[in-house]
Amino acid sequence: MTASTRDIVLSVEGLKTWFHSRDGVAKSVDGVTFDLARGETLAIVGESGSGKSVTSLSIMGLLPKPAGRIEGGRILFRDRQDAQHDLAQASPATLRRIRGAEIAMIFQEPMTSLNPLYTVGDQIAEAVLQHEGGSYAAAINRAREMLERVEIPAADRRINEYPHQMSGGMRQRVMIALALACNPAVLIADEPTTALDVTVQAQILDLLRRLQAEMNMSILFITHNLGVVAEIAHRVAVMYAGRVVEDADVYDLFEKPTHPYTRGLLSCIPTASLRASGERLRAIPGNVPSVLSLPPGCTFAPRCPLAASDCLAAVPELVPVQTEHRARCIKVNPI
Ligand SMILES: Nc1ncnc2c1ncn2[C@@H]1O[C@H](COP(=O)(O)OP(=O)(O)OP(=O)(O)O)[C@@H](O)[C@H]1O
Ligand SMILES: [Mg+2]
């Protein structure tokens, strides 16, 4: 898709989310920018602590208060009526209306969203009643339909079960059914398959892909696993220390990675020949800097093989290197 034909549903512009504590200010998200188009999957990748989850909690209005605050930027969301909201400034009532109904979220651990005290049918029905009203009978019917849609066998019986009676993979399916019950435009999936074994992970990715096509839904897929990115994403945003350092179409990113950090990440993917040779997996030397004291200029410079003194002068801009492909590095040639 080209810029002019991408139908943008969620646009995050220069988002800054900081945490205030006695130790100082943690600039966990410090100028994150990306667009999500309708029907598209955008993967956000980056090492642990790069600000992926804080970005998604900022969009959902679920930051731990009062420590976490949005200090700047905009989170523009177009709702079903085509009205635009800046979720960074929205009232708690607007956020409650949008959250769960128009933007839904699934987590790595299903038990963070599922209540152990209610049957899975009642939980899905409750979400439908809360956002759409109507009768309990209609809501429980929707719950059954949703369980069938996420391919839970014997949905008629399973609807009366409690989360603990189910396997991890089945609970993940219930969480997806719950998230999608109100037909959201955007699904935020934060490491949804990390805790699952490889076979179940592949099944859940297949399911998400199929549901996305059926519902023309947009997915913000958060992961540190580039193998999963290649499976599911249309576009990729690479995060480092609270900023997007590169974003591109998934093929471009794997074929022509531009930012030295992205190149480093890609060279760390284990390959079959590497495994066979018993060679150790490469890792990018050094660590992600502390968000309490970020280095000046480019925050990747201390680990970057190309770093020079001018990299420390100022934070590089995210500049276009090709159509729909941008990188935050002064060593790349902008178009
Ligand atoms: N409640 C909080 N209070 C203070 N700092 C926080 C809080 N939540 C997150 N942070 C800090 O913000 C930074 C980004 O955290 P975040 O959880 O977004 O990372 P992540 O990219 O999701 O990592 P992971 O891959 O491990 O899930 C981290 O340095 C973290 O310590
Ligand atoms: Mg996280």
Automatic annotation (TrEMBL):
Domain of life: Bacteria
Coiled coil (UniProt feature): none
Intracellular or extracellular location(s): Cell inner membrane
Major location category of this protein: membrane
Membrane-topology descriptor: Peripheral membrane protein
UniProt-listed CDD domains: ABC_NikE_OppD_transporters
Annotated ABC transporter domain residues: 10-266
UniProt GO MF annotations: ATP binding; ATP hydrolysis activity
Cell cycle is among the record's keywords: no
Pfam family, one: ABC_tran
UniProtKB keywords: ATP-binding, Cell membrane, Membrane, Nucleotide-binding, Transport
Biological process terms in GO annotation: peptide transport; transmembrane transport
GO CC annotation: plasma membrane
Family as reported in the entry's similarity comment: Belongs to the ABC transporter superfamily.
Name of this chain's protein: Oligopeptide transport ATP-binding protein OppD
